[in-house]
Design goal:
Its main location: nucleus. It comes from Penaeus vannamei (Whiteleg shrimp). By secondary structure, this protein is an alpha+beta fold. Among the domains are: about 180 residues, no CATH class; about 100 residues; about 110 residues, Arc Repressor Mutant, subunit A (Orthogonal Bundle); about 230 residues, no CATH class. About 40% of the residues lie in helices and about 10% in strands. Strands 15-16-18-19-17 form a five-stranded antiparallel β-sheet, with helices on both faces. Strand 3 and strand 4 form a beta hairpin.
């Protein structure tokens, strides 16, 4: 019995000690004892056993009782392995993390000999003497969760096995001890290094934590194994799982399903010839579902060992027949997706081992072991032998670790030898990048002129000096900002509701936010500009202060090369190359609106050079800080704020750029435009469907406030020698002419229309208690999706009306307009309508034009341009259903289409539930862009400036000249006209909408009378049909044009090969009847009403003779 009682005391002391300096409450102690292996089997935790254990606690002199100021929260043991991805078996980070009742708060009380982490260390009270006299029931009633049990420092060191592993000469730091304490508290669950519920909660930087863990691993206090975890946003953390060593009693091997699947894939590929296999074969052998395979193959950890490449079909299947390896429709070989092992020698069991950066130079060790000194010759000075080692190394030189290894010296002795050689001026040192570290290489003076390291260093230094002289000549005056003037507000009122704050980083990275509304009073802005001008004049006396920055940095580099100073900066050739690339690029572009572009440029140039190590963001920031202090560049932080959304952008600019420079203002306007398009909410409200709602950008009255200047360009590198020449400025002239304010308003209005359509809005029927109309997925909505040439005609008519033929009035009297409509169209029964529910009328006629507002003037004085966002905002319902396939049928949509007035409403004015059914998934944008592309294929449109990556944020130019070729005289063919005949060309100039209708009617007439599509005439002949979207002539028609180039190219030419009907490209198949009419469903009639001759009234008469129209066409043709 005494032995069992002794064992219980050991268990109690161990559990209390493992909880650390924070101590443990009684409730938490019972929870821990239940989790302890084999404890509850010998002694079930009940009221009697608790009283017995309490009697043992109060008699133990190594356990102290403390009272907390406030009760401690209940202990919840978090098991991360209850949150697993069922497919990959990766630990998932929980959305709601459990509360940490042991916050990080380091304590080192030398007077009491206590150390650890405890937030309430100085507030809690020692009540060991009084509480030990009470029974368990009395203690729980009097103190409750305020009572904590704390083990002595000796017990806690014993539980962590510190005394057995280290002695007083190897004492741990406080942070290392707290890390060990947290790992001990985790018991068998272990502590991880990544994620929110991990050692990262201590708040120390990862680099320091790595060295702390490395120290504990070296002392064999903890064990390490790999750990993968997926965060909330889908990112995967690769870290380590740590346990206490202590005879491996807490160690639990964790091999996730994810790791085992990677190992299985490696084993499969190692058995294949060439260590590669087709994607489908690997997937079948692994026997996993498609979704699991897709997730696995896309993971970063999987791609570290296996790469996904494509290979020719016959390389994978050498015995394949021509029908198997040849592509359909062309004489080219197929490519097969294969999985290939990156390192064929890898051991599958070594996959996913935790890899951490290991320093080249080990830590100081007082017990280095037996030194290998077989190269040391006795009787010859050690410095002389060391110099011989350096000389034998040649131009590459040696490092301190190499010197220690070759001469059999310790690290400290090797460092002393290298310093003495350098002090005697027999060698010189150069810093060389080795991975992510900088290592000093000692090179003999014998190779000072011929060594490639020295030559590269001198070359980069000369480049920097040359650019310094160029910058001196370009920068006429000093920097416009003092140390105190680190921020100001951009003087602009282009986009109201967006705050822009500028911060100049002069002496380092500071954070002094200062912002102002852009719609501030102009008088205040003028005063601010005058004050800044006075400040510039007051600094002119210090004109040389900036140039001193250049000289100072180069002087440090010179001292590093000549070894004239012991504490020289760590400047490497790689660092100077990167600095020169940045200086050259900034000198060419002047303003770079994203520092990541510089990082991407450097990484691409170094990868082409063959340098495998990628530059990270921290290294770039350090380099930019040094260049900023030296005066080579300026770092400007731009803060954009719209409501609660804040975006911070770092600008890297030339030293000559000031806050008033148009280059900087133009780049900021671009960022504001992108920010406004991505902001979830803005202070500007979209105009609604009332009488005054004419569309947000309809008036076009917003005057331009954007400053002139080129857009900051994307940085691209093609060669290492001159990085700046490889940076393109994308259409800088467009920014001079573009009204960025109105463009942003159009983009935001379209975005708000989508946002409102995706929100849940109560329908009128629901509010009235009537069951709403059922919206079901069904094809064939009335009037929807006619043939593609008919849809092209509809969109062309709308574009021409918006750009050239707009006849609406913004200041139209609404009462008079409705009276005019009622008198001209009595069938509409205007008197029975509630006119207050309709938006503003711009055109007093019952047609699709009546509710369309004018286009905003984005291009200022330029005509012929339209912004696709504006076109989408001006789509009437009757035209929308003809252009877009409506897959959600609703009787209410049919009711709108049958109503004489509502069918002409713009889509943005429809009820939200109907608009949601029409705009769902933004499919309509794809349909409209496809029609725009086809209009470009026939020479009616040209693309212009692209604002952002979205398809609808692009400008288009509507051509006024067009032409057709009379191909009715061609001989029979399948899809191409005869090449040996002369044809008549018809030239068009679109001055009004009637000319557009005539053009499309003539195109239809020619296409239907061209003798193409016959099969009998092509018997025995080979026909090659090319894909329209892949033809070079067609792709060239989609090339963006500038505001000057597009009007010059408006000459009526037809893109493509000209071998199709009407002179169009043969791959458009304009001669096929199905591209012009359809007899199925509710589509247009065999002869579309949209293509009637212009002289028919309203395009409603469908009875006419095609031969008469064709004769009229022939009378108006001219011979080429």
């Amino acid at each position: 019995m005494a032995c069992q009682g002794l064992q219980y005391i050991v268990d109690l002391e161990d559990e209390i000690a493992l909880e650390g300096l924070d101590g443990i409450t009684l409730e938490a102690l019972w929870t821990r004892l239940k989790q302890r292996p084999n404890f509850e089997a010998n002694m079930p935790i009940d009221s009697d056993s608790k009283a017995f254990l309490w009697s043992l606690i109060v008699q133990d002199e190594e356990i102290f009782l403390f009272e907390l100021p406030t009760p401690r929260d209940k202990l919840e043991i978090f098991n991360r392995y209850e949150h697993m991805d069922p497919e990959l078996g990766i630990v998932l980070e929980p959305e709601e993390e459990p509360k940490d009742i042991y916050p990080f708060h380091p304590v080192e009380d030398e007077s009491e000999g206590m150390r650890g982490s405890c937030k309430m260390y100085h507030e809690r009270v020692n009540i060991s003497d009084s509480a030990s006299l009470l029974t368990l029931e009395e203690v729980e009633k009097q103190y409750g969760e305020k009572l904590v049990l704390v083990a002595s420092q000796t017990l806690r060191n014993k539980a962590l096995c510190i005394s057995a592993c280290i002695d007083k000469f190897y004492d741990l730091t406080l942070t290392q001890y707290i890390i060990l304490e947290r790992i001990g508290r985790s018991r068998r669950m272990g502590e991880i290094t990544q994620g929110k519920i991990s050692l990262a909660a201590m708040g120390d930087n990862p680099k320091s934590m790595f060295y702390h863990r490395k120290r504990l691993l070296k002392l064999n206090l903890i064990t390490k194994q790999p750990h993968q975890q997926k965060g909330h946003k889908g990112q995967t953390y690769n870290g380590s799982l740590l346990h206490l060593t202590i005879l491996i009693r807490f160690y639990v091997e964790r091999r996730s399903k994810f790791i085992m699947m990677i190992q299985r894939a490696v084993e499969i590929l190692k058995t294949k010839p060439g260590y590669c296999a087709p994607y489908t074969a690997v997937k079948e052998e692994m026997g996993m579902p498609e979704t699991s395979c897709r997730k696995l193959f896309k993971s970063t950890e999987f791609q570290r060992y296996i790469k996904n490449v494509t290979a020719p079909y016959r390389k994978v299947y050498p015995d394949a027949s021509p029908s198997q390896w040849r592509c359909k429709g062309k004489d080219a070989e197929k490519f097969v997706r294969i999985m290939e092992l990156i390192n064929p020698k890898i051991d599958p069991m070594e996959v996913c081992k935790a890899e951490e950066v290991v320093e080249d130079e080990e830590e100081d060790d007082s017990y280095p072991g037996i030194l290998d000194q077989h190269r040391v010759v006795w009787g010859i000075g050690l410095l002389q032998q060391a110099y011989k080692v350096v000389e034998e190394a040649g131009p590459e030189g040696v490092s301190q670790s190499d010197m220690a290894r070759l001469l059999g010296q310790t690290k400290l002795d090797s460092r002393t030898i290298c310093r003495n050689l350098q002090r005697r001026n027999t060698v010189h040192s150069l810093m060389k990048d080795v991975g992510r570290q900088r290592v000093s290489r000692y090179v003999s003076h014998k190779y000072a002129r011929t060594g490639h390291l020295t030559q590269e260093f001198r070359k980069e230094r000369q480049r920097m000096m040359a650019m310094m002289e160029a910058n001196k000549a370009e920068v006429c005056g000093p920097s416009t900002s003092k140390e105190g003037e680190v921020s100001r507000v951009l003087e602009s009122n282009s986009l109201e509701g967006v705050e822009v704050g500028l911060e100049m980083l002069t002496g380092g990275r500071v954070n002094i936010p200062k912002s102002k509304r852009l719609n501030a009073d102009s008088s205040n802005l003028t005063k601010e500009a005058d004050q800044s001008q006075k400040k510039r004049q007051s600094i002119d006396d210090d004109g040389d202060s900036k140039n001193k920055g250049f000289v100072r940095m180069l002087e440090e580099i010179r001292l590093t090369y000549n070894n004239q100073r012991r504490n020289s900066p760590h400047v490497t050739t790689r660092m100077m190359k990167r600095a020169n690339m940045i200086i050259e690029t900034v000198g060419s572009i002047k303003v770079i609106d994203d520092a990541f572009k510089l990082q991407k440029m450097i990484v691409q140039a170094e990868s082409e050079e063959g340098y495998a190590v990628k530059m990270d963001k921290k290294s770039l920031n350090r380099l930019l800080d040094k260049l900023s202090k030296g005066g080579f560049v300026k770092n400007i932080i731009v803060k954009l704020k719209c409501n609660t959304m804040v975006k911070v952008v770092q600008f890297v600019v030339h030293p000559s750029i000031t806050f008033e420079s148009p280059h900087l203002k133009s780049a900021i306007e671009q960022q504001k435009l992108k920010f406004l398009a991505s902001a979830p909410d803005t202070k500007r409200e979209a105009e609604g469907g009332g009488a005054g709602g004419g569309g947000g950008g309809g008036s076009g009255s917003t005057k331009g406030g954007a400053a002139a200047g080129p857009e900051s360009a994307k940085v691209k590198v093609k060669s290492e020698s001159s990085a700046a020449k490889m940076v393109k400025k994308a259409m800088s002239e467009e920014n001079d002419r573009m009204n960025k304010s109105s463009v942003g308003a159009s983009m935001q209005e379209l975005k708000q229309m989508h946002q409102v359509s995706t929100t849940t809005v109560a329908t009128p029927e629901a509010e009235a208690g009537v069951a709403p109309a059922v919206v079901k997925k069904e094809a064939g909505v009335k009037g929807s999706l006619g043939p593609k040439f008919v849809r092209m005609c509809e969109l062309h008519k709308l574009l021409f009306y918006l750009v050239y033929g707009y006849s609406g009035k913004e200041d139209m009297d609404q009462v008079e307009a409705w009276q005019t409509i009622a008198s001209s169209s009595p069938e509409a029964q205007i008197h029975a309508e509630d006119l207050s529910t309709y938006p503003m009328v711009y055109y007093a006629e019952l047609s699709w034009k009546m509710f369309i507002p004018p286009l905003p003037n984005h291009m200022n004085s330029e005509s012929g341009w339209a912004f696709v966002c504006d076109v989408l905002l001006r789509l009437p319902l009757c035209i929308f259903v003809r252009l877009v396939s409506i897959c959600h049928y609703s009787s209410e949509i049919d009711a709108f289409m049958n109503h004489p007035i509502k069918r002409n409403l713009l889509v943005k004015y429809l009820p939200p539930h109907l608009r949601q059914a029409l705009l769902q998934g933004r499919r309509y944008v794809t349909y409209v862009i496809d029609l725009i592309n086809r209009l470009c294929y026939v020479g009616l449109l040209q693309y212009g400036h692209q604002i952002m990556k979205e398809k609808d944020q692009v400008f288009i130019y509507v051509n006024r000249h067009a032409s057709l070729i009379d191909t009715t005289t061609s001989g029979p063919g399948y899809h191409q006209i005869s090449a040996d005949k002369e044809y008549v060309r018809k030239e068009y100039f679109f001055s009004c909408l009637q000319d557009v209708l005539q053009y499309w009617y003539d195109m239809w007439t020619i296409s239907m009378h061209t003798p193409l599509g016959g099969h009998n005439c092509m018997q025995g002949k080979k026909i090659t049909i090319q894909i329209l979207d892949r033809k070079p002539q067609i792709i060239e028609s989609l090339t963006p044009r500038s505001t000057e180039e597009a009007p010059a190219r408006d000459n009526g030419s037809i893109p493509g090969d000209g071998r199709g009907a009407g002179g169009l490209d043969s791959a458009m198949f304009a001669h096929l009847k199905r591209n012009w009419s359809s007899n199925s469903g509710h589509s247009a009639s065999a002869r579309p009403s949209a293509l009637l001759p212009p002289n028919t009234e309203g395009g409603e008469r469908a009875t006419y003779e095609g031969t008469i129209s064709y004769t009229q066409y022939l009378m108006n043709t001219t011979k080429i």
